[in-house]
Design goal:
This protein has no helices and 20 strands. By secondary structure, it is an all-beta fold.
Length: 233
């Protein structure tokens, strides 16, 4: 896919590692503090390069690397304990977990371990197959679809590269970020084969989180704090 990439603004946090566009604005999660903010999307920003924060909540997630919105809740990907970045908390995950979080209070509504345990860098609520999530399952270098009600596995696809991050489900495929290779691949939903790809070369922000936006995507860069727009040409 031929695209144009444009840096828009910086996240309100230094290490944004998940984002999701909703009707209310843009949700962004911080990997260090595990706080989540609902911010405004603007083309023009102030001297600090950030946009207004409309809501901010704490969470019981840890080392958060992935965020989704669906069924009235936020879904956070906890990539293990947070003690590498901050003081340890009783609620920190020991390995990869998914937390369902109240968007008003930040309270945990439910939590599940990643299938096969190991880490995770991405989560997506599937709007086409209700009641399912897609997770990056890093230990096996795969992406996994699970049913929320019983946490059973629906599909597993091998991934073409390591360090999988953000995930976006569209009607005819599944987009997955591979941060180290600076590429976003689109997988066929039947075979898991790569059917399209987007390169994100330097000096653009490094892709970590991924969210649908207009006719393209938003990405967040956990290393620089920037949020960028990817538009189809």
């Amino acid at each position: 896919m031929e695209v144009e990439i444009k840096s828009l603004f910086r996240a309100p946090y230094s290490v944004p590692n998940g984002l999701q566009v909703t009707d209310d604005g843009l949700w962004v999660v911080d990997q260090i503090s595990d706080r989540v903010a609902l911010i405004e999307i603007r083309d023009e920003v102030d001297d600090y390069g950030v946009t207004p924060v409309h809501r901010e909540i704490p969470s019981e997630s840890s080392n958060t690397s992935g965020l989704a919105w669906g069924d009235g809740s936020l879904w956070l990907a906890a990539n293990g304990a947070g003690a590498k970045w901050r003081t340890a908390r009783d609620a920190d995950a020991e390995s990869g977990e998914i937390l369902r979080v109240d968007p008003e209070t930040g309270s945990t509504q439910a939590r599940w371990k990643i299938p096969g345990e190991g880490g995770t860098h991405g989560v997506e609520f599937d709007g086409f197959e209700p009641g399912t999530l897609w997770l990056t399952t890093l230990r096996s270098q795969t992406v996994t679809q699970v049913k929320i009600d019983d946490w059973s596995i629906v599909k597993v696809f091998d991934l073409p590269h390591t360090r999988a991050h953000g995930v976006v489900r569209v009607e005819n495929g599944l987009w997955v970020v591979h941060t180290g290779d600076r590429v976003i691949v689109k997988l066929d939903l039947s075979s898991g084969k790569v059917i399209d790809r987007i390169e994100v070369p330097k000096p653009h922000p490094e892709p970590h989180g991924l969210a649908l936006f207009k006719d393209g995507f938003l990405i967040c860069d956990a290393t620089s704090g920037w949020i960028a727009e990817i538009s189809q040409i």
